[in-house]
Design goal:
By secondary structure, the protein is an alpha/beta fold. Helices cover 37% and strands 13% of the residues. The protein contains 16 helices and 13 strands. The strands form two sheets. The chain has an eleven-stranded mixed β-sheet. It is globular. 53% of the residues are buried. The model has no long low-confidence stretch (mean pLDDT 95).
């Protein structure tokens, strides 16, 4: 009996030693990428690799970081989502198929940031291919970058696809980052990671040299800890680009967005409360109601809107549009890359690459890619009808009609619920968000932190009509100044280890 107990004890000790050694080996491997960086960046890299894993590539040319809040755009460290090209780092979209994609060119929005003195700090991880590969994906995971984690609770999801951009800003790795959105990919991760995220009017910011999904809905936008910092970044990246016809009117709508922020802008304004976009969680609804009172205290006049456009009809048409445009636009992008660097020249090539690469499909498949490959192009009558229907239902008969019929200037709703647990078996447990209408219509959508549900952040959405970017930002700024809801994360291993939650889990003395 004693021998058996001794053997069992030895076996347990051996298992623990093996697990500890494996963890040390894994940690050492993850930290190797931080060794050759300048000290200021290496410290950030180490902290990230040990917690959020939000950054795929750190710049090896950044030697000093001395920006302080209030300094403006010059010297501001900014992370770039890794589907946006920078001349000095690869652009992978998180896919091993693009791991050699280093075309040596800046996307126009990156060139604008550099010209104004911003510091491009690195490339942020993302949901691979901006979360358009599979209907069963794990947001925040890419084959190149691995899994990004929510800094408020490290076992919670970041949402996506701008997962690393959001987690990095929330974790304090940079004051701002650039994300991209087709539908929810800026606003959902921003809300779930407790930061500000702004999806501008489609056409305000160039999409050139960004790995695409949809010419109809894609846009880049700023993600930051404050509305002011987001507005500073937007002022720089907005503007017309001859290579992107959608931006033809951008210069006419580009202003100093930060200068236009007004903490008193809510006074006397009629705000539409989209009651049909609540119910993501009981806790989220309670926080939302508390913030409605804060809006009224700031002088806003709230108008309940109980019915909205048919989300199912919009979603069906939207998905048909995204599938068709994904095949066309991704093929065009791949054709613009160097074949010596990117052997996969078409979506069909990428599908075949994934099938031949075990890591790519180990956690989830590529059913959306396969469906997109089966589409018949931009001249397909079904695509043309779907685009007309989705745009009409979300824009003129959606946001525009609600604003006009209720005589309001902007629409609000909870952005989404709190972060769900990471689940590598079943994928995301996503309960919906307020993103669809603005995404499909191409209208501006801002999310601002509004509070917490059991220690996890949730955000308030502000949605306006086309080219109302300045007004939406100003209303969000006024809300932010009135509530000051954001607080820094504590990097808890899980919600049940959070300082505020732990006492609730203990029995009464």
């Amino acid at each position: 009996m004693a021998a058996a107990e001794a053997a069992e004890t030895a076996a347990i000790a051996a298992d623990e030693a093996w697990a500890e050694a494996s963890l040390e080996d894994d940690t050492r491997a993850r930290l190797d990428g931080c060794i050759d960086l300048y000290d200021a960046v290496a410290d950030l890299c180490i902290g990230d690799r040990l917690t959020t894993n939000a950054v795929i590539t750190w710049s090896r040319s950044v030697s000093t970081l001395d920006w302080r809040p209030g300094d403006g755009i010059r010297g501001m460290p900014i992370l770039i989502k890794d589907n946006i090209e920078t001349f000095d780092m690869p652009t992978t979209a998180g896919s091993m198929a693009l791991i050699g994609n280093a075309p040596g060119r800046d996307a126009p929005l990156v060139a604008r940031l550099r010209a104004e003195g911003a510091v491009i700090l690195g490339k942020a991880n993302l949901s691979e291919w901006a979360n358009i590969r599979s209907s069963e994906s794990i947001s925040g995971w890419s084959a190149v970058g691995g899994l990004s984690r929510n800094p408020y609770a490290l076992d919670r999801n970041t949402c996506g696809s701008s997962a690393g951009s959001a987690a990095a800003v929330a974790a304090g790795l940079a004051p701002a980052a650039i994300g991209t959105e087709t539908d929810g990919s800026i606003t959902c991760p921003a809300a779930i990671n407790g930061i500000v995220g702004f999806k501008p009017t489609v056409g305000l910011v160039s999409r050139t040299h960004i790995v695409p999904i949809s010419r109809s809905q894609d846009t880049a936008g700023p993600m930051a800890r404050t509305v002011r910092d987001a507005a500073l970044v937007l002022t720089v990246i907005a503007g017309s680009d001859p290579a992107d016809p959608a931006t033809a009117e951008a210069d006419a709508h580009r202003v100093d967005f930060a200068a236009g922020l007004d903490a008193g802008s809510l006074r006397g304004q009629r705000i539409g409360v989209m009651r049909f976009l609540t119910g993501y969680s009981t806790g989220t609804d309670l926080v939302f109601e508390e913030n409605l009172r804060a809006l009224e205290a700031a002088g806003a006049i709230l108008v309940d809107i109980t019915e909205g456009p048919d989300g199912g009809a919009i979603g069906g048409a939207e998905f048909a549009v995204l599938l068709t445009e994904l095949k066309v636009d991704l093929n065009l992008y791949l054709a613009s890359t160097d074949p010596a660097q990117v052997p996969t020249r078409t979506l069909a090539d990428v599908i075949a690459f994934n099938e031949a690469t075990p890591r790519e499909l180990a956690l989830f498949g590529q059913d959306i890619f396969i469906a997109a490959e089966a589409t018949e192009g931009l001249e397909d009558p079904d695509y043309i009808a779907a685009r007309e229907r989705s745009l009409r239902l979300a824009g003129p008969e959606g946001i525009d009609r609600m604003i006009a019929d209720h005589d309001v200037v902007v629409l609000i709703a909870p952005t989404t619920g709190p972060a769900w647990s990471i689940d590598v078996v079943n994928g995301d447990n996503y309960l919906g968000s307020a993103s669809q209408l603005a995404a499909v219509a191409g209208y501006p959508h801002l999310t601002v932190p509004m509070g917490f549900v059991d220690g996890l952040p949730v955000g308030m959405s502000f949605i306006g009509g086309k080219w109302q970017d300045q007004q939406v930002l100003s209303f969000g700024y006024a809300f932010e100044q009135a509530t000051q809801a954001r607080r820094d994360p504590e990097f808890a291993p899980s919600v049940d280890r959070m300082e505020a939650v732990v006492p609730l889990l203990r029995p009464l003395p």
